TrEMBL record:
Segments passing through the bilayer: none
One Pfam family cited in the UniProt record for this chain: GFO_IDH_MocA_C3
Domain Gfo/Idh/MocA-like oxidoreductase N-terminal: 5-116
Protein name: Dehydrogenase
InterPro entries registered for this protein in UniProt: Gfo/Idh/MocA-like_OxRdtase_N, Gfo/Idh/MocA_oxidoreduct, GFO_IDH_MocA-like_dom, NAD(P)-bd_dom_sf
Alphabetical keyword list: Oxidoreductase
Amino acid sequence: MRQLEIALIGAGLIARMHLEAWIGAGASVRVHSLDGRAAELAAEFGAKAVDSLAEALDGADAVDICSPTGTHRDIALAAIAKNVAVVCEKPLAADVTEAEEIVGAAERAGVPVYPAHDIRFAPAFARLHELVAEGRLGAGTVARFTVAGYHPRPWTGHASVESGGILTDQMLHGVDIAYWLFGDVVRVHAHYQGEIAAPAPQGTAAVGTAVLTHASGALSQVVSRWTPTPQPPIRVTYHVSGTGGTIVHDSEWPQEIQVSGGPAGTFGYYGESPFSSEIREFAQALRGGPEPRLVSHDALAAVRITQAAARSAWTGRAVELPVKGAAA
Ligand SMILES: NC(=O)c1ccc[n+]([C@@H]2O[C@H](COP(=O)([O-])OP(=O)(O)OC[C@H]3O[C@@H](n4cnc5c(N)ncnc54)[C@H](O)[C@@H]3O)[C@@H](O)[C@H]2O)c1
């Protein structure tokens, strides 16, 4: 099996999880960051630190962008210009225009873009998708997805008319799951409550919610909350109902989920890290294996929906979205 060469950009919270996963998938990784932490992080996992983006990209099979969202566009375009595949943390870009630029450039160059929406790889969500795809929930689905967690990074705390804050950042997780399960979203109505400051101080508390109307007729509500303290740790839940039954999951309480009276699986918060499953699937695709469960257009759809949520929250009106094609 050929060893993949990965250029990992960033040495923060999320880069650490990706690096561990790439090493687990057998890749050789060069780490580049701007904060002087690359050397320490690389040494911890037997990777190599490099001084520049150009050095990281030189001869790489893929770049893995784990730097702040506002830097994604330039790094992705630099990689695509060198025919280097792109793996990118969520959101793919800071806004729809930048996300479209990345996807357009990648398509013209024939370079794959794999968005790292790790929630699709969390066992409880992957199983939910299987159950919905199998038709176990029947028709007329209504869903609620929630995420709550501490927000320690000032560079995304900021919520303003230009930046959606939690609506375009943390909310993307629930939005992506709703889109994966029920397809295109044609209408978004959102609300935001919290700091409106740039940058927001550490421990900023905020809550956002969006109701999504899917072209299929399904309705999803996504709720996101930034908690002011690191404890309790991140908590995710869902409650999904159709004519065939209801599936409920709460990451706090390992439980067997049931649908239509029959068992459908047991999930806890722990287990294989979704980052490991995600990176393994991307690594297989980069080695010529099957396409991963999400590609560039899924990232674009998620950015379009979250940006519409931000627009809705600031105007107080629902936002209509054109249908851009069916979800994978
Ligand atoms: N999937 C998830 O659940 C999840 C969770 C947290 C963050 N994220 C995403 O991951 C990305 C990074 O977030 P984080 O929390 O790890 O950030 P962080 O602030 O902890 O780390 C950012 C790193 O990027 C480096 N960096 C900044 N600009 C750079 C540049 N131009 N070139 C090279 N390196 C640069 C910094 O030096 C730092 O090492 C963001 O897009 C964020 O939205 C995803």
